[in-house]
Amino acid sequence: QLSPPKPRTRNHMPEKSVEETLGWSEDYAKRVRKITGVLGLILLFCGVICQWVAASRMSGVPLGLLCKAYSGMDDLNDIDSWTKFKYEFYNNRDSQGVLDLADVAYEFSTLPQRPDANYPLDNLLGSLPSFWCKHLPECPAGTSCAGNSIVYVNASWARGGVWEGRPVTTEPHWNIAAESMGFYGNPIRCSDKTKVFHDMLMAIHTTISGEWTEDPATEARWSEDAVNRASTEFLHSCQASKGSLGYILACGPVFSSLACVVCAFVLFRQPSSSTDKKCGGCCDSTLGANIGQGLAIMAVAMALIGFWVIAYEVSQEIGQSYMFCSGAPNVLVKDGVYFDDTSCADVNSDGEKSMNPFLNFQFGVTALYTAGGTCNIIATFLLVVAISKMNESSKLMQFKNFEGRDEDDDDL
């Protein structure tokens, strides 16, 4: 007689948890996530502040800083300066023509001949420093100076903003390379340019007796309202000329700011199923982590593009137009100019070792933007580590749920 089969019994071995099987520690992951997340957010916040400050100042350099480099003094041309310019024009011109923007453009630009009367206002944005600055760096050719001002101008009407009574600086200044005029003009604060432009219009469009003149292009008389409107359009044109560079440099801080907000929300929010339901799934930690990671990567990409733009501007406009002359023997440097006519960036007209204030400001802003972008790049890697630890926890929870379902199927 066969005995009934014995029931099979499982060999109950001590079961290991999923964490032990995979060699994963929840406490360790939390520590790594918190440490890297906090450090990343701190660096990201510092980088955003640095880039915002640098981007705003890179296209808003005070006009007085240019004049400081050009003539050693930061005074700008005002209504009195332009009135003297008007008197000099009418006194030294053989013809009895009316002073207009074409005459001003020919005087303060490198144009080979006098332009048409309807000269575009936008072209005045790139005028020579003598257009913006009150003092000249030295007594120009064809004039006589006494008491630090011009007392005589040749009747041939020499170009370059020359008129009787215009002051000539006594302070040391820096030689400005002609190749870098565009670099000097573009970053200048538009409000400062507009003020000088407004005073110029008020002076040249009135006669010596103070009456408004007739415009040769429109055959209508100027007025204060017309001057204000033209100044407003000049301001808009100046702001538009900075659009491309400002857009590129501002994109990095924008993406960094968004990444900072999203990552902070994901890393420090308390998980709640009711909150996730109210958000329609938008508050889910996995989704937020992926969004924050994507924004951080885009911020890094824009930071690298910003580095390239700045490096191009600096190398193209400064590196190829200036050289550092400090320490060179006197036979090679004279009055802040190298013997091959290259302008010195760190030697003034008195031969003293002193950095060009305009270039020094630009170097400082560039370094600040670069430091901010570097902080953002390091912060992005730290946040990616923190988010990866969060994703590991989410995948582990999914694995445990699947394991529980398999055991229920075996019992059935």
Q: Which strand order does the major sheet show?
A: 1-2
Q: What share of residues are in beta strands?
A: under 5%
Number of helices: 13
Cα distance spanning the termini: 33 Å
Question: How helical, in percent, are the residues?
Answer: 55-70%
> What is the average of the pLDDT values?
76
Strand tally, please? Answer: 6
Alpha-beta classification: mainly alpha
Cα radius of gyration in angstroms? 34 Å
Largest sheet: 2 strands, antiparallel
Shape: elongated
Uncertain stretches: 272-284, 404-412
Q: List the secondary-structure elements in sequence, H or E.
A: HHHHHHEEHHHHHHEEEEH
Features:
412 residues; mainly alpha; two-stranded antiparallel sheet; 13 helices; disordered C terminus
Overview of this protein structure:
The structure is a single chain. With 412 residues, this protein is mainly α. The chain is 56% helix and 4% strand. It contains 13 helices and six strands. The chain has helices spanning 18-22, 26-58, 63-71, 79-92, 101-107, 129-132, 181-185, 190-204, 224-241, 243-268, 273-278, 285-319, 357-411; strands at 143-145, 150-153, 322-323, 333-334, 337-338, 343-344. The strands form three sheets. It has a two-stranded antiparallel ribbon. A two-stranded parallel ribbon has the order 3-6. α8 runs antiparallel to α9 and α10 packs parallel to α13. It is elongated. It starts with 17 loop residues before the first helix and ends with a helix. The relative contact order is 0.15.
